[in-house]
Specification:
mainly alpha, 2 strands, binds zinc ion
């Protein structure tokens, strides 16, 4: 188990969520634990932000063929970049893993459907 410094008194404690510092009584919260928790919160924001951005880029690029195909390539790169498979070590529980796979599949699935529909109109 990793150790962190207590954010209140700097005493060394376990990074696990819910750990109570024996020195000052501070309880380790969800996002404050170790470095992984910080990466986790960053990834959480990314997994919402990236599909949303891809969606807008693909939608607004559809007026021009070259822009549209560039947007599709960008979308694929971003989708691969945020795939939960690459962040397996960030997840503490299976629930978190399935949650992120759900978000990823739903977000990117919608965009793939949209691209497919737009391609048929070209
Ligand atoms: Zn403390």
């Amino acid at each position: 188990m990793d150790l962190i410094n207590c954010p209140v008194c700097e005493h060394q404690i376990l990074s696990r969520i819910g750990t109570i510092c024996p020195n000052c009584g501070h309880t380790v919260k969800y996002f404050e634990g170790n470095k992984k928790r910080k990466e986790y919160s960053k990834y959480f924001a990314l997994s919402i932000f990236v599909p949303f951005t891809s969606f807008l880029i693909v939608l607004f690029s559809a007026v021009n063929k070259i822009a549209f195909f560039t947007a599709i390539i960008l979308f694929i790169i971003l989708a691969v970049y945020t795939i939960p498979l690459r962040y397996n070590k960030l997840f503490f529980t299976n629930y978190e893993k399935y949650l992120f796979w759900g978000i990823w599949l739903l977000g990117n699935g919608l965009i793939v459907t949209m691209i497919y529909n737009l391609l048929n109109k070209l």
